[in-house]
Design brief:
Elements: H1 2-31, H2 38-56, H3 59-71, H4 80-96, H5 100-122, H6 126-145, H7 155-161, H8 167-189, H9 205-219, E1 226-230, E2 236-240, E3 243-248, H10 255-273, H11 290-304, H12 308-321, H13 323-326, H14 331-338, H15 355-371, H16 379-391, H17 417-436, H18 440-445, H19 450-459, H20 469-477, H21 484-498
Parallel strand pairs: 1-3
Antiparallel strand pairs: 2-3
Helix pairs in contact: 1-2, 1-3, 2-5, 3-4, 5-6, 8-21, 9-10, 10-11, 11-17, 12-14, 15-16, 15-17, 17-21
The structure holds zinc ion.
């Protein structure tokens, strides 16, 4: 058995190395590559993807997994070996169901759809994007068909981002969450909006970047094993635990964007840096799922970064860096300003009280598209009517409506719900963490974040993708994904800010 396991590990290192090379090329594409490199980069990525896919789905890997399946039960269930066999088999069986011609066609269609989407968004013209989106939707429905029988057509799509979670479970969670979010929003709507004009004064970009770096250094982001670069759509990518890349963007007129974006990506980055290095070069050297990953970014961005204790420590430093912009703004005014609630059209700019509503409307539309009950041509009007219903707003055009997000052009149906689930999980984790760290608020107000990072490392980060996400959440918080801690957090926070 040892020999077979060693052989499997050796084959997997090649797959992981190829995927890592893809990730390096992808990082370069979104940070440094000149526009002229796009075509060549597409070929390079396609070739690597094809080789990695062929290696992973080879008969030898299949045979080894079959042989090791029953034998693997001899290892303790939480051991690296048992988890490697289990998680690899799961991915292998999924990849095996997808024909390589499909992989190729899907890559080609979504690559084109992405560039058409960029142009359609720039000219705010959905009709330009519509034929491409129709192809993508058809391909996604075809993808789901490879996994029949399923309970719901959306299940296989969701499973790619949140392994093991079912559509019915997400619907149940959102059905509990939605009325509570709407009720909170109604309570807030009757109150005056806190002052926030000072956030759009002119803030030199390089100083904003400097401040962001100071904050995440204090959090524990390791610069010996990571770096930060500028990009248009911020993301984080880890090549292994010794090399994790975060990205950010900055706008001199929008102080919040770089500060909170940097904390968000650092949350993702510290997760990747915290994975046990013994898992490097295996499929387990990544986050457990998109929702778990997002719980880490949201925890640092919101639970820590938008809290009053955090600004008790950091606001004097921010005032020092931007004296003319902030000298007359008190800590309390600043804190209320960055936590103001204002229904808005754009998801990425949404505050904590409205963010999940943006996700819920996308989920409903995605499910309808996959079920076939909504046609792509009717998507803009369906979008606009839901925005009106959920947020009380009317998008002035498609760029501020149905075209705002990149995900659908890339075929990422099933992704959006993990953003909202990540919010819920972040609050669940925070409650567990608070119970274990009695002086949490005091620590934060003194700029002491080590207890938080140490706790997250021990409970979540070091395990990488060893455990299925639902099992991991249960281990850490005692329950599955549930909206109650998040609503407790929001209600307490906004009750204080808005005197509800
Ligand atoms: Zn994120």
């Amino acid at each position: 058995m040892e020999q077979k396991l060693d052989r499997l590990k050796a084959l997997l290192t090649e797959v992981v190395d190829l995927r890592t090379a893809q990730a390096v090329l992808g990082w370069d594409q979104e940070t440094l590559m000149p526009p002229g490199g796009a075509l060549g980069r597409g070929y390079q990525l396609g070739t690597l993807a094809k080789i990695a896919h062929a290696k992973f789905t080879s008969d030898e890997v299949g045979q080894l997994l079959e042989d090791l399946g029953p034998l693997g039960k001899q290892f303790p269930p939480d051991s690296d070996e048992a988890c490697l066999i289990k998680i690899t088999l799961r991915e292998y069986l999924k990849l095996k169901r997808v024909p390589s011609e499909y992989v190729e066609e899907n890559t080609r269609v979504t690559s084109n759809a992405y560039s058409v989407w960029e142009k359609a968004k720039a000219s705010s013209d959905f009709s330009m994007f519509r034929p491409e989106l129709e192809k993508v939707v058809a391909l996604r429905r075809q993808y789901a068909s490879f996994f029949q029988p399923y309970v719901h057509v959306y299940d296989p799509l969701l499973d790619d981002f949140e392994p093991g979670l079912k559509t019915a479970e997400v619907k149940d969670i959102f059905n509990v969450l939605r009325p509570q979010q709407v009720a909170l929003l109604h309570a807030i709507a009757g109150k005056p909006v806190p002052e926030s004009k000072f956030l759009t004064a002119s803030y030199p970009e390089s100083t904003q970047i400097e401040f962001g770096k100071e904050v995440i250094t204090r959090f524990g982001f390791d610069w010996q094993r990571g770096r930060e670069d500028l990009t248009v759509h911020p993301f984080t990518t880890g090549f292994n635990t010794g090399d994790v890349r975060i990205t950010t963007r900055v706008d001199s007129q929008r102080l919040e964007m770089a500060i909170f974006g940097t904390m968000h990506e650092a949350g993702h980055g510290m997760y990747e840096q915290g994975i046990d290095p013994t898992l490097n070069r295996t499929p387990l050297a990544s986050g457990a799922s998109m929702a778990i990953h997002e719980s880490q970014s949201r925890l640092w961005e919101n639970l820590v970064g938008r809290s009053r204790p955090f600004w008790v420590y950091f606001y004097p430093r921010l005032q020092q860096l931007f004296p003319s912009q902030l000298e007359n703004i008190s800590l309390d005014t600043f804190y209320r300003g960055i936590n103001r609630v204002e229904p808005s059209l754009i998801r990425v700019n949404a505050d904590e009280a409205t963010y999940n509503l943006h996700i819920m409307l996308r989920l409903e539309l995605e499910i309808a598209l996959m079920e076939g009950s909504l046609a792509v041509k009717d998507l803009p009007s369906a979008w606009n009517s839901r925005v009106k219903e959920y947020l009380g707003l009317t998008p002035p055009d498609d760029a501020n409506g149905v075209l705002q997000d990149v995900h659908w052009s890339q075929g990422y149906f099933g992704y959006f719900s993990t953003y909202a689930l990540g919010n819920l999980v972040s609050a669940q984790i925070w409650e567990a963490l608070s119970a274990d760290i009695p002086d949490l608020e005091k620590d934060i107000s003194q700029g002491e974040f080590r207890p938080i990072l140490t706790w997250l490392r021990e409970k979540i980060h070091r395990h990488g993708a060893k455990f299925e996400p639902q099992d991991l959440i249960r281990k850490v918080t005692g329950t599955g994904i549930t909206p109650e801690p998040y609503m407790r957090y929001l209600t307490a926070k906004y009750s204080e800010i808005y005197h509800l």
